[in-house]
Every structure is written in structure tokens, then in C-alpha cells.
Design brief:
This protein is α/β, with parallel strands linked by helices. The chain has a single domain, classed as Aminopeptidase (3-Layer(aba) Sandwich). It is about 40% helix and about 25% strand. The protein contains eight helices and eight strands. Strands 1-2-4-3-5-8 form a six-stranded mixed sheet, sandwiched between helices. The chain has a two-stranded parallel sheet with strand order 6-7. Strand 1 and strand 2 form a beta hairpin. The radius of gyration is 21 Å and the shape is globular. The termini are far apart. Bound molecules: zinc ion (ZN). Zinc ion binds next to loops.
């Protein structure tokens, strides 16, 4: 028999007690931001993903592959863009719930067409949030959800083909909002939550002023509960993004966006938007807040 030195035994005992005491805290494991980061890294490694380009085809394949065991719908349509008709592909993944109603989590996944001549991989702008939703899917998969159904939407054509305007931007979300307006889906959506550029290491999410008030309050409440309120809504700013077509149709919507990326926003839409500017921790924070927000919406 091996005898442990007394002192060590004591500390082991104390450690065991401590572990027991803190177990509830450990049990509430944080969202797996490291996994979201890995997905984002692989997705960004495809390279530029501008519509009509070879990287876009690979990005579509990546999404199909990740959700091959899920209810994946491909929403392919032809957009009348400023450079002519372009085939675009939204992806919708459905995780059914027991309650009647839908919570949408969304992002765009493509990169900017005008930036096709530089090596713009959109690590934060498209890849980070694609990875975030893929990791969230990993937690939703395999069981019928207790609350509302959760649908993940990966929008195509968020970026302008030439110069950002109401008509040259958000092609995928404008198409889907119109389609869901026509078939009655919009009326079932309890909340539409958009994530954009939230992988930034220096996370400061603005309060987007077109977003629905009660949903902003719920996200703030979720962040506060998790002790992460300092990353949320310290400044106010209106942003045009994929949520607007849903806001305009009366769907409760919020854009969770950090449009302050690098010194004087100098990484935004430049070749500087690479994975070293993105952090797993930021993805963890937003992932946790999203999951907590879903819980709060279900309790509402
Ligand atoms: Zn962008």
C-alpha cells in the first residue's frame, strides 16, 4: 500500500471539497467558442467566397457537408444585381421544437464581390458567424427542442456588388423575407436574430437602433446574467444589414454587430480581416448570450 504524505492528502481533500462546492458553476459549461473558431478557421481557409467565384462553390459545399444529417433547405434564386443576374444560395437549417413558433438565428456567409481582387477572406465578416451558427447547431442537434423551433439561416448576397445601397445589398435576406411573407412563415417568427462581425477580439457590440426594443432588452438581460454586459450596447448606432427586410415586415428583429473592427475600423473590408483578429472567447460570449436569449424568448 502506498501512503500519501499527510500534507498532500489534506490539500487533495480541500480541493475535492472546493470542486464539489463549485460544481454547479462548472456544470453550466460555457458555449464552445473554440469549436466555433475552428469551423470559422476552416471556412475562412477556403479563401474569398464572392458570388460567382470558385470559393463560393466550396463555401456552399462546406455548409451542405456540415448539415448533411439535418433538415437543410437550399433556397436558390436569381438576383437582379447591379452586375446582372446572379444565382444566389441561401441555406436554412431547421431544428424542430415542441412550441408553435420559430426563432431564427442568421448570418451571411459570402464575401464582398468588389474585393475579389484582394485576398479578402472575411474571417470576421462572414466566416466567424458561420462558425458560430455551426457550433450552435452542434448543441441543438439530435433532440426535439423544448421551446420554439430554431431555424438557422445562412444568407448569400449580403454585400454590395458595386456600391452599398438599399437596392445593391442584402439580396438574400430581401428575397427570403419576401418569400416567407408570401407563404405565411413570417407570422410564425417570434424573433429574428442576426449576427455579423462578432468574432472581433476587441468585442464591443453596438445597440443597433433599427432593432426591436424588447429583443434588445432581452439580449441585454441575457448578457447581464452571464456577466458579459460590458461587451454589449455601450454605444448606439443604426446599421443597414440583413435584419432590415424583416424589421420592415414587422418581425421582431435584432442585429448583433460590432462595426468597430481594428483601429478606426481599418480591418473592415480589407485583406486585414483574417483569423488572427478573431477570438474564440468573443465567439463564446456571443454564443452563450444567444443560447440564453433563446431561453428567455421561450419563457416570454
Ligand atoms: Zn462586409
Amino acid at each position: 500500500m502506498i501512503r500519501r504524505p499527510k500534507g498532500r492528502m489534506k490539500s487533495t481533500f480541500v480541493l475535492s471539497l472546493l470542486a464539489l462546492f463549485f460544481q454547479p458553476a462548472f456544470a453550466q459549461a460555457r458555449f464552445n467558442g473554440a469549436k466555433a473558431y475552428e469551423y470559422a478557421k476552416s471556412f475562412a481557409a477556403i479563401g474569398p467566397r464572392w458570388p460567382t467565384g470558385p470559393g463560393h462553390v466550396k463555401a456552399e459545399a462546406f455548409i451542405r457537408s456540415h448539415f448533411k444529417q439535418d433538415q437543410l433547405e437550399e433556397d436558390t434564386f436569381t438576383a437582379n444585381t447591379t452586375i446582372g443576374p446572379v444565382a444566389l444560395h441561401n441555406f436554412i437549417v431547421r431544428f424542430p421544437g415542441k412550441k408553435d413558433g420559430i426563432i431564427v438565428l442568421s448570418t451571411h456567409y459570402e464575401t464582398n464581390y468588389p474585393l475579389r481582387d484582394i485576398n479578402f477572406v472575411g474571417a470576421n465578416d462572414g466566416a466567424a458567424t458561420t462558425g458560430l451558427l455551426m457550433a450552435i447547431a452542434d448543441q441543438l442537434r439530435g433532440k426535439k427542442l423544448d421551446g420554439y423551433s430554431v431555424w438557422l439561416v445562412f444568407f448569400d448576397g449580403e454585400e454590395a456588388f458595386e456600391h452599398w445601397s438599399a437596392s445593391d445589398s442584402t439580396y438574400g435576406s430581401r428575397h427570403l423575407a419576401a418569400k416567407w411573407g408570401g407563404d405565411g412563415t413570417l407570422g410564425k417568427i417570434k424573433a429574428f436574430i442576426l449576427a455579423d462581425m462578432i468574432g472581433d477580439k476587441d468585442l464591443d457590440i453596438q445597440r443597433e437602433t433599427n432593432s426591436t426594443g424588447w429583443l434588445v432588452d432581452l439580449v441585454r438581460q441575457a448578457a447581464k446574467k452571464l456577466g458579459d454586459e460590458r461587451y454589449f450596447f455601450q454605444t448606439d448606432e443604426p446599421v443597414e444589414d440583413d435584419h432590415l427586410p424583416f424589421v420592415k415586415r414587422g418581425v421582431p428583429s435584432i442585429d448583433i454587430i460590432d462595426l468597430d473592427y481594428g483601429p478606426n475600423n481599418s480591418y473592415h473590408h480589407t485583406a486585414q480581416d483574417t483569423m488572427d483578429k478573431v477570438s474564440a472567447r468573443s465567439l463564446s460570449i456571443v454564443g452563450d448570450v444567444f443560447l440564453e436569449t433563446i431561453r428567455l424568448i421561450n419563457q416570454r
